Structure formats: C-alpha cells, structure tokens
Amino acid sequence: MDRIFSGIQPTGNLHLGNYLGAVRNWVRLQNDYECIFCIVDLHAITVPQDPAELRRTTREVAATYIAAGINPNSAVIFNQSTVSGHAELSWLLSCITPLGWLNRMTQFKDKAGKNRESVGLGLYAYPVLMAADILLYKATHVPVGEDQKQHLELARDIAIAFNRQFGEDFFPLPEPQILGTATRVMSLRDGTKKMSKSDISDYSRINLTDDAETIDLKIRKAKTDPDALPESVEGLGSRPEAANLLGIYAALTDASLGETVSRFAGVDFSRFKKDLAELAVTVLGPIAAERARLLAAPDHIDTILRHGAERANAIAAPNIAHVKELVGFLSP
Ligand code: TRP
C-alpha cells in the first residue's frame, strides 16, 4: 500500500496557511493511504528553541492535527525525537550526500542569510534529516507546500544515490503531492509574501488560536487595493492581495478560484471581506474549540504520541536494521 509521510515543526503558532496548505489535505488523504504525520522536533532545534516552549508547541501541533480531523487510531501521529531511526538514518545519508547538493538549497540561504558562518551545522544538514524522515518509512508520497519541493527533490536524489551504492530499489522514490487551491496562503499584509509564523506582524496571519473577533478584525484590516473585485481570474494578475483573499475563500469553500472570482465579480472589498471573515470563523471556530479541549488534557495527548511512536518504530526498526546491514555495520 502507498505510504504517506509528512511533518510540521513545533515552532510558533500554526496558522491558516498550515491548515489549508497541509493539515486539511492530510485529513483527506488518511483513508486512501497509510499515513504517518510527524511533529518534527529534531528539525525545530536547527534554530534555538526554549525547552519549555518546545514541549508546549509539540503538544499543540499534536492537538491541532487531531482537532482538524486526523484520526490517531488510523494515522500514526508522533514526535520525531521518540524514534531514534530518524537521527541514525540522517547520519548515514549525510555520508553519501555531496556538499554541492546542500549548497544549492535555497531555504538554507534564506534562513542563514548573512550569518552563514555562525548558524549551526544542523540548519545546513536539515534537508538530509528530512530525507531520512521520509526514507526511514520507505514512504511513497509526501504532501508538502511549494516551498518544500526542492527538499523533496533532494530526498529523491539521496535515495537514488543510496540505491546505486547499496542495492537497487531499496528506497522507493518519494513523490511530492502539492495539493489544493490555497497551498500557498500569503500574508494578509503583503500578498507577495508567504503567510508565516515568523512574520513580526500578527496581522499578517490568521492563527488557528484566533477567536472570532480577532479573525474578523485581521481580515477587515487585510491589505487590499482600491478597485472592486475583478470579473475574471486574469484580472488578478497584478493584484496579489485580491488573489490571496479570493484564494483563501476558494479553499475554505472547496471551490475553484474561477468559481470564486465569478461569485464576487465587481463586488467591493468591504462586502467581500465580511463574507470571508464569516466563512473563516465558521470553518476554524470548531477546530479551535476542539484543540483547546484536547490541550486541557495533556496526558491524553502524550498517550496518543507514545502510542504513535510505538507504531512508527515498528515500521522504522526493520528498515534501519536493513540499512545498517547493507552499509556493512556488524551487529553482533
Ligand atoms: N521541512 C518541512 C517544513 O518545514 C517539515 C518536514 C520535516 C517534512 N520532515 C519532513 C515535511 C518530511 C515532509 C516530509 O515544512
């Protein structure tokens, strides 16, 4: 059976972009695939994290997965550090990954910026760990946002390199799944920038913790241009903010962008924003409520994560044992 692996870092608050671009799509995949949804805490520490905060956000991401509709009895939900195979395979793969491949990674260049000499080795090796996450389970499909496509291509290249060196067809080549209208939800303050947990302005994003009033206010204050909404999708060409808000509406109603543009053709922004805010509150409100309910019982979340780790490890352990044997490690 085809197997999916994906993950989100437990850093900061999850927002609408994470929901529409990732978690909501996962919910829809869980019946058709064997799914492993990870909370990638090993990736989180590639930049400094506060330990107490990391524990809190790890539970928060788990609660969000479940509140959004991922069923922990069928999908495997766990945090990465509890399955030692991730770190082990990451080391083995790092030994067959040429530096030249890592030097091409645009996310490292963006994140390291001018601090190339002072950021940790882990930030540089991040894409190798991501390849290990996927290959450890011999996952065949990986739902990710646009921004992770380059990392996934690297994972495929690493799999090919390993197979060539140690055994044809050991790792299946993972396919990216880029899903949905709003895989790329942009900032509410700048339609050319991705909605991000690290943006300094909280008005740039809708957090999955925002209450109805906050959602309404953020959408009302979202950047727009002075014109009414266009009659056709082509009319969105040079209007990134209009395109983003209409894209969000389309995704939240499961409509195409074309249908949504026709629906609001010629409407002014203030009326459209009212509709959008109402819709966002209707969709996100129940998720936020369920998430809060789950977080009130952290022991229950920990039990789910522990159970997930056992199931993940049951898949990972024979694979890592086989890799070690292929590489030539003696296991007396
Ligand atoms: N790098 C991904 C992100 O930031 C998270 C991630 C880590 C991931 N390991 C993964 C996604 C494996 C898919 C598969 O979004």
Task: Describe the structure in your own words.
The protein has 332 residues and is mainly alpha-helical. The chain has helices at residues 16-29, 41-44, 51-68, 85-94, 99-103, 106-112, 121-136, 149-166, 212-221, 240-253, 257-263, 269-295, 298-327; strands spanning 3-8, 34-39, 76-79, 141-143, 175-177. It is built from 13 helices and 5 strands. The strands form 2 sheets. A 3-stranded parallel sheet has the order 1-2-3. It has a two-stranded parallel sheet with strand order 4-5. Strand 1, helix 1 (16-29) and strand 2 (34-39) form a beta-alpha-beta unit. The two termini are 33 Å apart. It binds tryptophan (TRP). Tryptophan is lined by residues 5-7, 9, 40, 43, 130, 133-134, 142, 144, 148, 151.
Secondary structure topology:
Elements: E1 3-8, H1 16-29, E2 34-39, H2 41-44, H3 51-68, E3 76-79, H4 85-94, H5 99-103, H6 106-112, H7 121-136, E4 141-143, H8 149-166, E5 175-177, H9 212-221, H10 240-253, H11 257-263, H12 269-295, H13 298-327
Parallel strand pairs: 1-2, 2-3, 4-5
Helix pairs in contact: 3-12, 4-7, 7-8, 9-12, 10-11, 10-12
The protein binds tryptophan.
Would you kindly provide a brief summary of this structure?
With 332 residues, the protein is mainly alpha-helical.
Described by the principal axes of the CA atoms, the overall outline is globular
Radius of gyration: 21 Å
Average pLDDT works out at: 95
What order do the strands of the largest sheet run in, or round the barrel if closed?
1-2-3
Instruction: State the share of residues found in helices, binned by percent.
Output: 40-55%
CATH secondary-structure class of the largest domain: Alpha Beta
Tally of discrete structural domains: 2
Looking at how many chains there are and whether they match, the oligomeric state comes to: single chain
What is the H/E string? EHEHHEHHHHEHEHHHHH
Query: What's the CATH topology name of the largest domain?
Result: Rossmann fold
- By DSSP (H or I, 4+ residues per run), the number of helices equals 13
Chemical compounds bound to the protein: tryptophan
Q: State the separation between the terminal residues, measured CA to CA.
A: 33 Å
Using the 3D structure, state the CATH architecture of the largest domain: 3-Layer(aba) Sandwich
